[in-house]
């Protein structure tokens, strides 16, 4: 059921591919996360609480699909790529835990469950986020003395790229812009400002997830560039769809407080462009994403992920 | 004044050695920290605020001294070791920013200045801490395509060790134990429990700082083990002295709210053992630290750092 070659088989439907790859990610996360007695029980539990709360696993799926798309035999070596995919998901999870805090977005519900600080208190939630971020880099540095020199080089390149995407120049910088702007009117952002904020806040890590997969899958520089361009368009589409779902979604379906962005006076694509034009923008971004792949002779699962991002309902 | 060979010269006093090495750390931190326009100005400023607030730089000094102590020529290559030392200091700084938050130790004063969340608000302070931690790993992953395979291996080993020390099994785990215990009576910890908590909370990163220096300086495994044992004793001495200073120190001199630990019902060495016995314990730990070095034919600046830790008044 989870044999190494199955997911790359073109006869396997995208749903089955995604299901198999997600199961591999869940199992690897469970194996890689710290546990007692090495780790104090409370922090281990708080870390797992948000990691295993039914996330879509978009980012690790991107990493795996990017690696598969460039691997010579059509399937990358999971020993190298799965830890990278998990590290990306831990960074994404830490960002959710911290963004939900009262001092940030002040969300009490995520994926239909109370947020981490509601369950464990703010102090432990902050620490659980810190630990998830740190753990991600520990996992990225996992290596064997017998690794080929080239593999060590790819690990360091991957680590460097992910850290840049997650840090002050990327995700954290975007969240800082968002936090500083919240409470002010949406006039703070025009279309270019909104896009620049999201390129950091959600776009940078999505791009790094795909690029990391390409690096670890052994891509050429041209392939890595194409995957990176694909993911830049995909990240934009993802964010627009997210904003649309926030407006449209019933609270039950998306599992977080719907309409919350509008209520907080946060700038969104629907607020700036309206729903119909936002949908057109998302579709065009997905087309651009697939175009970037095609130009480099890539496609496959990455193209299917782009379709899925456009069609998602949560 | 800052020529590469000077600091290793045995004729240079420890004060001069420490001053020269600290100046190198300050300059490297300034060069390595993100800045506008790549980084949004507010988060760049908030990161620098606590980094440049007059810290003792004990940990980066340990990294540099450990590297110098094992380097064949008596001075390690700063190109490899200085970034490692800076990364350790950024991790230490992030932990201060987060520990000072209202949901944790709720400190409004550090090193005589308002803490980061007082100046920038809680949201930006949390993000500045996140960014400092992420930046540390970006710096540790800095590499050149022309690096020797052995150097890449040492980088990954260093990164792995530091991440383990900083994460749920180390520093964050220790802080989680502390946060969970605060408010309960000091009877929660006996001597073994207090020591185990501090081995994680402050000890793990101090050990990693020294071990990372040894790795990056090109140590043998036996030398790295000796430096690690030294730093384990040193970390204990550091914590005991910290507790003593908290009881004794005037608020002006240590720059944080004195007697705060006792007030918060936090367990401390003086509370468990009294001041006189705490001083004896600290002195014995420093002797043990120097003994561990001597057994491996090491000493020099690392021994002098141990003396300094015992005699410090802030």
What does this entry look like structurally?
- Two copies of one chain form a homodimer.
- Chain A has 15 helices and two strands.
- In chain A, α3 crosses α9 and α10 packs antiparallel against α14.
- Chain A has a single domain, classed as Farnesyl Diphosphate Synthase.
- Chain A is mainly alpha-helical.
- The longest helix of chain A has 28 residues.
Number of domains of chain A: 1
Number of strands of chain A: 2
Number of helices of chain A: 15
- Categorize the overall geometry of chain A: globular
Physical arrangement of strands within the biggest beta sheet of chain A: 1-2
The chain pair with the largest interface is: A-B, 55 and 55 residues
CATH architecture term of chain A: Orthogonal Bundle
Strand pairing plus helix content of chain A: what structural class? mainly alpha
How much of the sequence of chain A is in beta strands? under 5%
Any chance you could write out the topology, listing elements then pairs?
The structure is a homodimer.
Chain A: H1 14-32, H2 41-51, H3 58-70, H4 78-99, E1 109-110, E2 113-114, H5 116-120, H6 122-141, H7 149-166, H8 171-181, H9 191-216, H10 221-248, H11 251-254, H12 260-263, H13 269-273, H14 275-295, H15 300-311
Quick overview of this protein structure:
The structure is a homodimer of 314-residue chains. Chain A is an all-alpha fold and 314 residues long.
């Amino acid at each position: 059921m989870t044999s190494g070659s199955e997911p790359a088989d073109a006869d396997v439907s995208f749903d089955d591919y995604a299901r198999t790859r997600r199961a591999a990610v869940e199992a690897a996360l469970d194996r890689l996360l710290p546990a007692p007695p090495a780790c104090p029980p409370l922090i281990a539990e708080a870390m797992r609480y948000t990691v295993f709360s039914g996330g879509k696993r978009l980012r690790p799926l991107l990493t795996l699909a990017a690696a598969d798309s460039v691997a010579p035999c059509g399937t990358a070596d999971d020993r190298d790529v799965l830890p990278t995919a998990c590290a990306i998901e831990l960074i994404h999870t830490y960002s959710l835990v911290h963004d939900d805090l009262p001092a940030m977005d002040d969300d009490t519900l995520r994926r239909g469950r109370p947020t981490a600080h509601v369950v464990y208190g703010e102090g432990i939630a902050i620490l659980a986020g810190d630990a998830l971020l740190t753990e991600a880099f520990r996992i990225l540095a996992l290596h064997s003395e017998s690794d080929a020199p080239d593999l060590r080089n790819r690990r360091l390149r991957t680590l460097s790229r992910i850290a840049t995407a997650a840090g002050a120049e990327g995700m954290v910088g975007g969240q800082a812009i968002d936090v500083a702007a919240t409470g002010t009117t949406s006039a703070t952002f025009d279309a270019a400002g909104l896009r620049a904020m999201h390129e950091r806040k959600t776009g940078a890590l999505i791009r790094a997830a795909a690029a990391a997969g390409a690096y670890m899958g052994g891509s050429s520089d041209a392939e890595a560039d194409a995957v990176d361009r694909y993911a830049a368009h995909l990240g934009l589409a993802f964010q627009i769809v997210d904003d649309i779902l926030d407006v449209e979604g019933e609270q039950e379906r998306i599992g977080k407080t719907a309409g919350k962005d509008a209520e907080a006076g946060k700038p969104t694509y629907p607020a700036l462009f309206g729903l119909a034009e936002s949908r057109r923008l998302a579709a065009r971004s997905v087309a651009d994403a697939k175009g970037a792949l095609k130009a480099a002779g890539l496609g496959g699962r990455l193209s299917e992920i782009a379709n899925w991002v456009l069609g998602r309902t949560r």
